Fold each of these.
Amino acid sequence: MIVTFLRWLQWTDFFSTLRDWLYSYPVILSLHMVAMSVFGGLILVTDLRLLGVGARTYSISDVIDGLRNLKRVGFVFVTTCGVLLFGCKADEYGFNPWFRLKLVFFVLLVIHHWVFRGSVYSNAAALDSAPQIPGRAKLAGGLSLLLWFGVICAGRGIGYLHPSLEHGITDPRPDSTQVMPPVATESLALNRASSAR
């Protein structure tokens, strides 16, 4: 069922059109990486402040509350680009162990946010009034750094670890009967673009 869904998603009109445009995937990937760098920088500043080793001239509440909206915008942009990238090559990503590992880190980050939201991220003013940074705040910052580092490493692994070739996909569009391994899907747009010239 999962395989069927991935193939359906990849070959919807929207993602087929997006994939057929020669420059769409590299442009979206570039935007994703730039946005991830900016978003990651905001996360890094926040976590280092919670650990007490960075941005010490600012209060914890200034850092957390001041960067909250920027991080939300960054997260939405990064996620949107990520969904577009996934949809273009859903069948390939679905069998990539690095992509699955990345999803695991995202689930852990959701749990992390749920656990520490009330005591740390929504309670920054109380952290400022404490004589020293509470252990729970340092724990939140340290775990956040480790989990986001895992997301980044898994994301880079996606581009360098090919899935098994046994999961071939068939282009369901009427003008094609070609069967391809997942790693060859990106070449479909290039071949069609060349033949159209």
Amino acid sequence: MTASLSPKLAEAHDANYVEFSTSYARRPGSELTRSRSFDRAVIDLPALPYNGVFRSNLGPNDVARVAAETVELARARRVPIGWRVTPTTPPETTPALEKAGWHVDHLMPVMAKDLDIAAPATLRAGITVEEITAAALAEWSRVVAVSFGCPEEYVEGPASYDRDVGLPGETSMRRFLLRVDGEPSAASALLPGQDDGYLAGIYCVATLARARGQGLGSIVTRAAIDAAQAAGSRLVVLQASEMGRPVYERLGFDTVGSITVFIP
């Protein structure tokens, strides 16, 4: 694996990331802009990962204008927003955002793995991994939402978006659910790339707190990797958290870039 993405693969990564991150904005009533200049989504769910600007190719003056518009859209819906500086973002975007009063909230390493011939993970007794159908979508949604800090009483919010933007089989998104003795415990998702499908993105890798420390994150990530390889992809990418980064490194992922998230 090279130390950085080529310009072509950086474009493919950003396209995949934007397709996933703006997917909730397909719900009627959401604010969605997809253009050559920028991609923006503002929805009614108060979750930073799904609100804001996800890709941009703007001059400094236009950055200031779009930033101001985005703040107003978010204020009207009372949701947090971010502006992602991705591998293809022009370098002048960062000082333009800082001049407009935005600051860095966090950085996400972009990690990638070449797909070679490898045997699927051996599962120990009591562990199963399934690609979900519509019948299990609610269980998958709960694992992802709760693992990322959503209180149980608010799980229906993101779960309703998962239903409304496309049930399993209705979109290209593939979702995987790991059970321990029948109990949903970990999850992942795979979004195949566009065009030739060379690159695929892995998202929503999540393990419930009670089940952490058992290697379940690696197993459910491996399920997504195997599905990508079986579908003909040659490279998988993901955006790592600090908790997940060591897991992905053990699976053979290398850091090849980053996404910097600015907030106002």
